[in-house]
Each structure stands twice: as structure tokens, then as C-alpha cells.
Amino acid sequence: MAGKEDFTQAIKVDSKFQFGDGKTKKSIFREDVHINQGSLNVYADEVEVDASKGEGNEIFIATGKPAKYTQQQEQGGSIEASANRIEYRRDLRTLTLEGDAQLKQNNSSVKGESIVFNMELEQIVAQGEGEKSGRVITIFQPSKKSAADNEKKPVENNIVNPAEQPKQDVNP
Questions:
Q1: Where on the phi/psi map is residue 151: left (φ > 0), alpha (ψ -120 to 50), or beta?
Q2: Long-range residue pairs from 61-64, CB within 8 A, at least 24 positions apart, any chain
């Protein structure tokens, strides 16, 4: 799971500008905004925080060209995401990526107009663009073989019996 301990840590938001409204429990952070919660990091041009539903139910809306998210996984590796708009719902532990959305996990990636990522369960729902191809693109990279894997394989004899080779068509 993605940094499960991250969710028990305090959220720190820093920026060059901040506006807070105590009555509505809403805040706006602008210019070089950085959100940090354990290994979870969000970088954006602007972040709106809606805390009107109480502690633990805050909604963070990050916008940028693009806004970015990174988090370390408990098993190692990392998750990276970017989009024009990233909504982090603290109560549901979800990220909603909208506008040129991309999420990379280990060696694989998903691209689409919108992606919803459950950070705790590591589940993804992606949707393509309506005006363009309307497609979601997922790329699975081949696993990288280590030197140890190559040493474990038996060396095969490269001598081939000509009678066992397939016949080749030699038409010009």
C-alpha cells in the first residue's frame, strides 16, 4: 500500500501567499505551493483547502501546469502523478486527477483525461478524452532482468541439427 503510515501524519502546506477564512473554514495557498504528509508530496501553483466538513474530512484542490503528486510505497518504489487539477480527499484517501492526467506506478503508467486513484487500496479508474481519441493509454514496461537472473539460466548448446530447422521460402 502507498505509504500507509503517511495518513497518520500531520499535513504541512507551505507557499508564498496564504488566505484563510475562519468562518467558512476555507483557505487558499498560491505561488510555489508544497503539501507534505509523510512521503506524500503535492506541488502546485495554487491549492484550495476546504475544511468545512471537519477535521480528517478536508479536501485539497491543487491546480497547476501541471500540479504534481509523489508518494513512496511501503514495498518500495514510488507513485507519481500529474494533472492540471488534483483533488485530494483526506477522508476517502483518493486523488482525482483531471486534465492531461497521468499516473506512474513502478514501471507502468496510465494516461487519460481523468484518473481516480484510491491511495490506500492502490486502485485506478481512468477515463479518456471526449474530444480527442476518447482513449485511455496504459503502458506496462517489461521487467528488468538482473545479472543474477542471467547467471541462473543454464547455457544452451547453440548447435542446431539442420534437419530440425524450419524450411525457408527462397522465392525471389
A1: alpha
A2: 61/85, 61/86, 61/87, 61/88, 62/33, 62/35, 62/86, 62/87, 62/88
Question: CA-CA distance, 131 to 153, in Å (whole number)?
Answer: 50
* Distance, CA of 24 to CA of 128 (rounded, Å): 35
Q: Is there a contact between 28 and 3 (Cβ–Cβ < 8 Å)?
A: no
pLDDT for residue 151: 54
pTM score above 0.85: no
Q: How far apart are CA 19 and CA 123, in angstroms?
A: 34
Run means of pLDDT, 10 residues per run, the chain, 172 residues: 71 94 94 92 96 92 95 83 94 91 86 86 74 63 59 50 52 51
Whether omega for the bond prior to residue 66 falls within 30 degrees of 0, making it cis, is: yes
